[in-house]
C-alpha cells in the first residue's frame, strides 16, 4: 500500500538553474544550438518533477518549446522551472529561459519558454502516483488552467491521429 502524501504547492519544488555557455555548444551560425537550450530546460524541469513527486520522474513529452531570441556564446543562461499541473502520475512543468552576457550586467532577456510532461516512476519503471498540486495564488491557478488546455489538446490530437489510422 502506498503512502498518501499531502498536496504540495508550486513553491515546494520551484527552482532556478544557471550556466555559462561555451563555443562547444555553438551551431554553424555561432549561436548556442537549440538542443543545448532544450537540454538545460529539461534538466531544470526534471529537478522540479523529482522534487514534487518525491522520487524518480522521466520526461514523457516536450509539449512546446518556443525560441524567442538566439542564445550567444558566453551568455549566462538562467532557467526558472515550476510545476503547473499534476494528474495521477504525470506532471506538467513550465520553464522560462533567460540570458545575459557574461561580461555585462545588462537586463536579462527572455529567450525561450517550454512545457515538459514528466511521469513519476517506481523502481521497476512503472508509473506511480504523485501528490496533488495546491495553487498558492492567481498566477498558479492560471498556469493550472492553461496546462489543462494543453493536456486536452494533446489527448485530442492523439485520438484524432489514432482514428485517422483506422481509415483505409
What does this protein look like?
The protein is an alpha+beta fold. The protein has one domain (10-165): Roll (Thiol Ester Dehydrase, Chain A). 31% of the residues lie in helices and 32% in strands. The protein has 3 helices and 5 strands, in the order αβαββββα. It has helices at residues 10-13, 34-53, 138-165; strands at 15-20, 57-67, 75-86, 90-101, 109-120. The chain has a 5-stranded antiparallel β-sheet with strand order 1-3-4-5-2. The longest helix has 28 residues, at 138-165. The radius of gyration is 18 Å and the shape is globular. The mean pLDDT is 94.
Q: Report Rg.
A: 18 Å
Number of helices: 3
Q: Give me the side-by-side strand order of the main sheet.
A: 1-3-4-5-2
Query: In the CATH classification, which architecture applies?
Result: Roll
Sheet/helix structural class: alpha+beta
Largest sheet: 5 strands, antiparallel
CATH topology: Thiol Ester Dehydrase, Chain A
Principal-axis shape: globular
Total number of β-strand segments?
5
Beta-strand content: 25-35%
- The portion of residues assigned to helices is 25-40%
Instruction: Give the N-to-C terminal Cα separation.
Output: 46 Å
- Write out the CATH superfamily name: Hotdog Thioesterase
Q: Low-confidence spans: pLDDT under 50, at least 5 residues?
A: none
Amino acid at each position: 500500500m502506498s503512502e498518501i502524501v499531502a498536496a504540495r504547492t508550486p513553491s515546494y519544488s520551484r527552482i532556478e538553474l544557471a550556466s555559462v555557455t561555451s563555443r562547444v555548444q555553438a551551431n554553424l551560425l555561432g549561436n548556442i544550438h537549440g538542443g543545448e537550450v532544450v537540454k538545460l530546460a529539461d534538466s531544470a524541469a526534471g529537478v522540479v518533477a523529482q522534487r514534487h513527486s518525491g522520487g524518480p520522474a522521466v520526461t514523457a513529452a516536450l509539449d512546446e518549446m518556443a525560441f524567442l531570441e538566439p542564445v550567444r556564446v558566453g551568455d549566462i543562461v538562467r532557467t526558472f522551472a515550476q510545476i503547473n499541473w499534476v494528474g495521477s502520475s504525470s506532471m506538467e512543468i513550465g520553464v522560462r529561459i533567460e540570458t545575459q552576457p557574461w561580461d555585462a550586467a545588462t537586463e536579462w532577456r527572455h529567450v525561450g519558454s517550454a512545457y515538459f510532461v514528466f511521469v513519476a516512476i517506481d523502481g521497476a519503471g512503472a508509473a506511480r502516483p504523485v501528490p496533488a498540486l495546491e495553487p498558492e495564488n492567481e498566477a498558479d491557478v492560471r498556469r493550472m488552467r492553461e496546462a489543462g488546455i494543453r493536456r486536452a489538446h494533446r489527448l485530442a490530437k492523439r485520438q484524432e491521429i489514432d482514428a485517422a489510422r483506422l481509415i483505409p
